[in-house]
Design brief:
The complex is a heterotetramer, with two copies of chain A and two copies of chain B. By secondary structure, chain A is an alpha/beta fold. Chain A has a single domain, classed as Glutaconate Coenzyme A-transferase (3-Layer(aba) Sandwich). In chain A, 20% of the residues lie in helices and 27% in strands. The chains are: A alpha/beta, B alpha/beta. At the C-D interface, helix 4, helix 5 and helix 6 of C face helix 3 and helix 4 of D.
């Protein structure tokens, strides 16, 4: 078993992502996105994708590359404001969008991974996102029923993996990645370093390898920064 | 506290008035979430003798100042996607854990921007029909989960129309969720009995507040006292 | 703020746990139980407690001490088979028991901590624990509605804390503790070591300090073993 | 694999037959949960050339052998509360994460003990009315979440009565959840078409299986072939 999760190339790792697939993609803004896997998917040209991801990249990076290439049919996201191509495709009707509050989106993905088909949250009650959703009262307060999400594939970015697929993330690049890993029927993890099983501390593993089917070593990460805010010493 | 880069602090006086007043809401030991934009600036006005931990909904408790130029880390950003640092005792977690904290009532106070607030405490701050929808991000979760929700905004829009409404005209972010509204003119609380004016900002008359507010509100018996303290 | 969570004594830490309180208590069997806090609670003698905990200790240790002292009115647990006093009190009607499947119990506690009043699970459908519970179909399959649990207090045991209440756990002593910490209105954490804020790696913290209101240093941990299974080298 | 302490392996021949057959269900690369009691013993019969990771629902993936005497760690136990060790690549997690794994369908195979199994795949293994209820532990979650549920038990009880029933008489652990039943006499699969006998254990005749089984079952066309292989 030990090395069977290690893929030889990004091309190989995504070879069975076919037209119409549902993908859950980690990252927040451009932080912690699986940039190599997204690029490989752009090269493959898979169409009609449903993509579940908090954001949709920017015009020329991250999921924005798939948008520009017209590979995405539908986005399930909480915030898509950084992307002009998104706006064009949405207004023209090419792109379907399901806006979901960020916390609800995170919980829906975790629920999908955890075998929970639905849960209740107060988030969104009395707002446009409540339209068409079942409501229920608990202890006199109204809640919306939200559904778990499972993806055909999950694309995640971690800092390190071991050969069994155990993952650790770095700082706020963790974000949606551990949840995506749980909710993909096949989870593809790209990482900056791969170590032997046993080199990661068992108490410090963020994503147990059971959730990860394919591991890839990425190199030359761009890790673009959206808003560089600094002080001058 | 956030050591804002030069330029960012050149905000209009009205905004500075709001931000300074909002900072007074933050007490020692609180866990605080500051929204993107004007609320982020509140961090700079928190007195130095007050220790708080700032939460960032992308997975961090313990936001620190902006990094020194050259030391920015692309793996370390806040919810506004700005490069930041952490304070000692900070922790990282995933987005589900982050919103478990928020939704579960563990955040003491959230300060959010607003487009409109209604007299029953409804908030609209995420979309304008006819304009491109960018999304609500974490705002809808924050207004339901935080122990205390403070909205900060300018009292009137660019056309001089009141943003403090009887009923919101924009789609809601949350219904009956605002605990306190701080504008450049006044501070209001929202209670089961209704909306109450509790303070006017320095140099602002009760008449001006009344004239620029569409919402019906009561006046706190201690209102004048608050003005005298100033 | 820095040191305000540090308590001087276990007695002080539990002084406001009054008769009738609901407690969520970490641990699995006798592993990772808050043994010092339980002992202090025995000395205080608080009665009519509702205790949410996977197990109920053994006759003379852990939560069994509170049972023997007749302090517990109701247990919500998944497995209580190691405890004779439990059996006696249950059969005599002194003790009320709500048996909950272990995974459902874990998720109910997490849900309570995460502000989710209810969720659906297939666990228990068609069994006695489904009685009186609402059911709902999702995609042709039947699920039970289960409720989140919130406690007046949570009693947890961690390995290390920092002065801000950030916690790390050790091996399988983690179990229900992080969930309990989330779901207590007041969470009391006893630990084997307290370090300064900043000494725990931010990426390796299991329970962020926001969930922890009181921290105590315990000493001379007994950590009793229920089933010592060993090989002879 | 678990290096059982001396004594533990002195099980009855019937139990050993069951455990050895159950071990054949485990394939290279699987994530496996073994129930308390007889299922735990299956670990010892997994061939050395097969790499699997054993999950313990109290929060561990990667159970290792029992510790060498004197090296036991009270913070490291399995779901049966026995002291254990870990294998390289093991990970620890909390109980909610553990059951997210289980409920979410990430465990390839669960092997559980049974008191009764019915012909439609119902399992009863947690309570006997009139006797003290100990609780279901994680069994109800495991039978719904695992990709494949294998039940192992002796075919008849101490009174010689069949435990393979038309309908379970005991309260259920799960309804239509068993994929395969392995007893000391036979192996059955549960399919939408019904219960199918796929193997008899060595030295067991079809007549004996029929005589000791209350449930109605079909016989697999490949049944005899399986016997010949033996």
């Amino acid at each position: 078993m030990k090395n069977s999760k290690l893929m030889n190339s990004f091309k190989e790792a995504i070879s069975d992502i076919n037209d119409g697939a549902t993908l859950i993609v980690g990252g927040f803004g451009l932080c912690g996105i699986p940039e190599k896997t997204i690029q490989a998917l752009k090269e493959k040209g898979t169409k009609n994708l449903t993509v579940v991801s908090n954001n949709c990249g920017v015009d020329d990076w991250g999921l924005g590359l798939l948008l520009a290439n017209k590979q995405i049919k539908k986005m399930i996201s909480s915030y898509v404001g950084e992307n002009k191509i998104f706006e064009q495709q949405f207004l023209s009707g090419e792109l379907e969008v399901e806006l979901t509050p960020q916390g609800t989106l995170a919980e829906r993905i975790r629920a999908g991974g955890a075998g929970i088909p639905g849960f209740y949250t107060a988030t969104g009650v009395g707002t446009p996102i409540a339209e068409g959703k079942e409501v229920k009262e608990f202890d006199g307060k109204t809640y919306l029923l939200e559904r778990g999400i499972v993806g055909d594939f999950a694309l995640v970015k971690a800092w390190k993996a071991d050969t069994l697929g155990n993952l650790v993330y770095h700082k706020t690049a963790r974000n949606f990645n551990p949840l995506a890993a749980m909710a993909g029927r096949i989870t593809i993890a790209e990482v900056e370093e791969i170590v032997e099983a046993g080199e990661l501390q068992p108490d410090e593993i963020h994503t147990p390898g059971i959730y990860v089917q394919r591991i890839l070593l990425g190199t030359d990460y761009q890790k673009r920064i959206e808003k560089r805010t600094v002080v001058h010493a | 506290m956030l050591n804002l880069p030069k330029g960012a602090v050149n905000m209009k006086d009205t905004r500075l008035t709001i931000v300074k007043r909002a900072a007074q809401e933050i007490k020692d030991g609180m866990y605080v979430n500051l929204g993107i934009g004007m609320p982020t600036l509140v961090a700079n006005e928190i007195p130095a003798d007050i220790n708080v931990l700032l939460q960032s909904e992308n997975g961090l408790l313990g936001i620190g100042p902006y990094p020194i130029a050259g030391q920015e880390d692309p793996d370390l950003i806040n919810a506004g996607k700005e490069t930041i640092t952490t304070v000692p005792g900070a922790s990282f977690f995933d987005s589900a854990e982050s919103f478990a904290m928020i939704r579960g009532g563990h955040i003491d106070i959230s300060i959010l921007g607003g487009m409109e607030v209604s007299e029953n405490g409804d908030l609209a701050n995420w979309m304008i029909p006819g304009k491109m929808v960018k999304g609500m991000g974490g705002a809808m979760d924050l207004v339901h989960g935080s122990k205390r929700v403070i909205v900060i905004m300018e009292h009137v829009n660019k056309q001089g129309k009141s943003k403090v409404k009887k009923v919101c005209s924009l789609p809601l972010t949350g219904q009956r969720v605002v605990d306190r509204l701080i504008t450049d003119l006044a501070v209001f609380d929202f209670t089961p009995e209704g909306m109450i004016l509790i303070e006017t900002q320095e140099g602002v008359s009760l008449e001006e507040v009344k004239a620029k507010t569409d919402a019906s509100f009561m006046i706190s018996p201690s209102l004048i006292l608050v003005e005298q303290v100033k």
